[in-house]
Design a protein that fits this description.
Blueprint lengths: L1 E5 L3 H12 L10 E6 L7 E2 L2 E4 L1 H9 L5 E3 L5 H5 L2 H5 L10 E5 L7 H12 L7 E5 L9 H11 L5 E5 L9 H9 L3 E4 L9 H11 L2 E4 L5 E6 L7 H7 L5 E5 L2 E3 L3 H12 L9 E2 L7 H8 L9 E8 L16
Parallel strand pairs: 1-2, 1-5, 2-4, 6-7, 6-12, 7-8, 8-9, 9-10
Antiparallel strand pairs: 3-4, 11-15, 12-13, 13-14
Helix pairs in contact: 5-6, 6-7
Length: about 325
């Protein structure tokens, strides 16, 4: 089956890679990624694939030369504007969904996580990737077991443990053995305080023979939160850099992490920002369609988000002023 992928950016290219190097090994009918589709087809070629404009794609589709279009999650909203025009129906064969199992200072109980993940698996049988995030996930003494649960339920899904790397030299061999045996990957967020230690961290991971990737040095931070209510939550949702990472926590799932952490902000600063947005996975009336629809629509908390404001990265203060988190 010939398919096209909407967009030419990183997420679209990652989707093409996942199909060609992962999904095709388990699909009954392998997919041939024939082209990318973009409203701005410049460049005209990405890698070894042509970039079609919408009219060109529609012509190929009508002739049956391309049978499906795949919408990566990050570009789904822009796709909605033209999908019905050219496709008559919104056919989404796959979409990249990232689920973050949040392991913060109040650790997600392993048994509860496994039960919640099994429940999620009843509705969603594959993801583009799974990321185990924090806080700092390596603080959790059972982090290896979380990796095993994820791999057991989703044996073919790319699996990442995202860390700031501070604790990596202290991790037991059992952790690295688990990462290796589960074909997981350690993803390091490279913050400035770790600059002098990063060569040794890299050497350690090579010696442990585990898959790993180190980000470029993170020297800037984006403010996205405000106390001023906006009148266009849909626009904020579409612009948001967080809603491409769906979060699982305590039996609920949300488009981003804010439904789960706003309560801590409110308690610390005595505020009353909305804490909505999470969907109960154990709702007896829940269906796959309802779950997916929920993750693609804004909620009240989005009214207190803004387009990103870039500032230099720095550590938070103690006590932490609100300006560490929000801006006017």
């Amino acid at each position: 089956m010939n398919v096209a992928i909407l967009g030419t950016g990183k997420q679209s290219q990652v989707m093409a890679y996942l199909i060609e190097n992962g999904y095709n090994s388990i699909l009954a009918e392998p997919l041939n990624v024939a082209a990318y589709v973009s409203g701005y087809p410049n460049p005209s070629v990405v890698g070894d694939k042509a970039v079609l404009n919408f009219e060109q794609f529609a012509a190929f589709w009508r002739k049956g030369l391309i049978q499906k279009i795949i919408f990566p999650r990050e570009v789904f909203f822009e796709a909605q504007k033209w999908a019905l025009t050219y496709l008559r129906q919104n056919e989404i064969e796959m979409s990249e969904v990232l689920v973050a199992a949040r392991l913060n200072q109040k650790f997600y109980p392993l048994e509860k996580f496994e039960r919640d993940f099994e429940r999620l698996h009843e509705f969603i049988d594959d993801f583009g990737a799974i990321k185990i995030l924090g806080g700092e996930p390596l603080l959790n003494p059972e982090v290896s077991e979380f990796v095993k649960v994820c791999r057991k339920l989703y044996p073919a899904t790319p699996l990442h443990v995202v860390t700031n790397a501070i604790l990596l030299p202290k991790m037991p061999d059992e952790f690295f053995d688990t990462v290796r045996s589960c074909n997981a990957e350690i993803c390091i967020s490279f913050y400035p305080p770790m600059e002098s230690k990063m060569p040794a961290i890299h050497k350690l991971l090579v010696e442990k023979n585990v898959n790993h990737v180190i980000s470029s040095k993170i020297e800037f931070f984006n403010w996205r939160q405000t106390l001023k209510r906006n009148n266009d939550p849909e626009r904020m949702f579409k612009l948001c850099g967080y809603t491409n990472c769906h979060n699982l926590c305590d039996g609920k799932i949300a488009a981003c992490f804010l439904p789960f952490v706003t309560k801590y902000f409110n308690a610390y600063y005595g505020k009353n920002l909305p804490e909505d947005g999470a969907l109960d996975l154990y709702d007896p009336n829940l269906t796959t369609e309802k779950l997916k629809a929920h993750l693609l629509k804004p909620f009240e908390r989005c009214r207190y988000c803004t387009p990103p404001v870039t500032v230099e990265w720095s550590t938070i203060k103690n006590p932490s002023p609100m300006t560490d988190w929000v801006h006017d």
